[in-house]
Every structure is written in structure tokens, then in C-alpha cells.
Amino acid sequence: MKAMRPTVLHVEDDPNDVALMKHACVAAKVSFQLLPASDGEKAIHYLEGDGIFGDRATYPMASLVFLDLKMPRKGGFEVLQWIRRHPSLKCLPVLILTSSRHEVDIKRAYELGANSYLVKPVNFEALVNMARVIDAYWMNLIQKPGFESAATASRAAAEPFAG
């Protein structure tokens, strides 16, 4: 049986940035699959396993999140706060991937628990290189805990101990 590739949830509202990152990951031959969420609300539904996202064979739990900051509905900071408040997700690595170089954004992202803050490169080769480095470090070099959806963890916590 073939092992599943780790999943990176790419939370980005700009379809051009989504396509560019997808092409960069293909060019970099990364070991992970990139799944898009077009806004913060969709990202939360994905991580909770709500609706269609409950099918973890089709929508596996993310091992890593690429998170843009400026998005409609729920912005990146709100999503990051939501992730860090959930016991089953608070250790999920979140990499801010944004065009903002504002010091206030950088500081706030780290204060809220971002694992890294990356500014989107302006040229494709730099983006391919970034994808390679992320893959090498976050998917192959370090050790990470396993993650389950927030909904699964909530249901498990609500069940009485059967021991």
C-alpha cells in the first residue's frame, strides 16, 4: 500500500497566487500535496472536518498550513488565533505566506503563534526555491506530532471514559 503524501493547506484568496504556488511546488518536486482554501472560513471548515471535508480520504488532515493574512470573511490572524485555541491543532505548524513586510504584521503573527513568517517572492525561481526549502525542513528534517481534525478531538473529549 502506497503511503499518503503529507498535506499542506494553502489558505489564499488570490487565485493567481494559488496557481503560482501550485506550479512552484510541482517544479520543486515537493513531497507534499497542496490543497487550497480560498478564505479563512473554508480553512476552518477544512480543519474541523465539516461537511465534505469530513471525508479524510479525500481531504486529509493538514500537516502544515500556508496562511495568507489579508483575506475576505476571516483573515489570516483570525484563522491563526482559531488554530491556536484548539487543543488538537495548537501544535499544527502555520507558516504565514504573505506580501506584507509590515513590522506590525510580522510581530502580531509571531505573537499569535505563527511558526514562520515568509514574504511571497516576486519571481518564480525564488518561489520554487522557497517550496524546496519548506519541503526539506518541514516535511523531512523535523519531527512533528500527528494531528486530527478539531471536530474529531472535540467528540473524543466529550465521550465518557470507557476504561
Q: The CATH topology is what?
A: Rossmann fold
What about the largest sheet? 5 strands, parallel
Overall average pLDDT:
89
What is the radius of gyration?
16 Å
Low-confidence stretches: 151-163
Instruction: State the end-to-end distance.
Output: 33 Å
Which structural class do the helices and strands define? alpha/beta
CATH class: Alpha Beta
The CATH architecture category equals 3-Layer(aba) Sandwich
Largest beta sheet: strand ordering: 2-1-3-4-5
Number of helical segments?
6
> What proportion of the residues form beta strands (DSSP E)?
5-15%
**CATH superfamily, called what?**
Response regulator
Proportion of residues in helical segments: 40-55%
Number of strands: 5
The number of domains: 1
Q: Order of helices and strands, N to C?
A: EHEHEHEHEHH
Secondary-structure blueprint of this entry?
Layout: E1 7-11, H1 15-28, E2 33-37, H2 40-48, E3 64-67, H3 76-85, E4 94-98, H4 103-111, E5 116-119, H5 124-141, H6 150-158
Parallel strand pairs: 1-2, 1-3, 3-4, 4-5
Written account of the structure:
The chain is of the alpha/beta class. It has a single domain (7-136), classed as Rossmann fold. The protein is built from six helices and five strands. It has helices spanning 15-28, 40-48, 76-85, 103-111, 124-141, 150-158; strands spanning 7-11, 33-37, 64-67, 94-98, 116-119. The chain has a five-stranded parallel sheet with strand order 2-1-3-4-5, with helices on both faces. Strand 3, helix 3 (76-85) and strand 4 (94-98) form a beta-alpha-beta unit. It is globular. Mean pLDDT is 89; it is low at 151-163.
